[in-house]
Amino acid sequence: MPLFVLGQMLYANGQVTNEPPEGFVEKRATQPATLTLDQAVAVKVQNNQRLTKNLKSLIWDDALAANAQQWANYLASINNLMHSTSDQRPNQGENLAYSYNSNGVTYPLTQGAQGWVAEVSNYHNEIIPQGNFASYGHYTQVMWSSTNRIGMANATAANGGVYIVARYSPPGNYVGYRPY
User: Fold this and answer.
1) Which domain does 12 fall in, by range?
2) Which ranges carry the SCP domain (predicted)?
3) Which of 60, 75, 153, 164 makes an SS bond possible with 69, Cβ 3.0 to 4.6 Å?
């Protein structure tokens, strides 16, 4: 039975109605109500950039966020910014950032997201090359058309530096392809 939502009205079986059919359960791609302000704004920053290319919004994923938190904790413990291996994050893309301010970092996830989408100025619709594409690789992961879920986390090192990790699924940045 085809069912379409038209504003507040439903279209089912060739008729417009205000009542859903019996047994209908509405499923929407929505953000959980439990996101912090920093998480919500960081996702919005990336989704706003995705909208510029008519890409679907990323949806928060708690499992990806938990994976990101584990890696952020590790990075903070060794005080070193490095990507995890693909074995450590199966079927997940990854963006990393580091932030330090002597007064503390208030919204680290948002700062990371803003930096990643700012790489748009370095990307000129080229295919992902074999080798170094660091000047725009964070942006292309954010914009990868098949990526639909995100989880982010941060951890603070002993020196006050903040490690920011985003995990994406499915991953992007496949060599020989464009993000959109």
Assistant:
1) 1-30
2) 37-176
3) 153
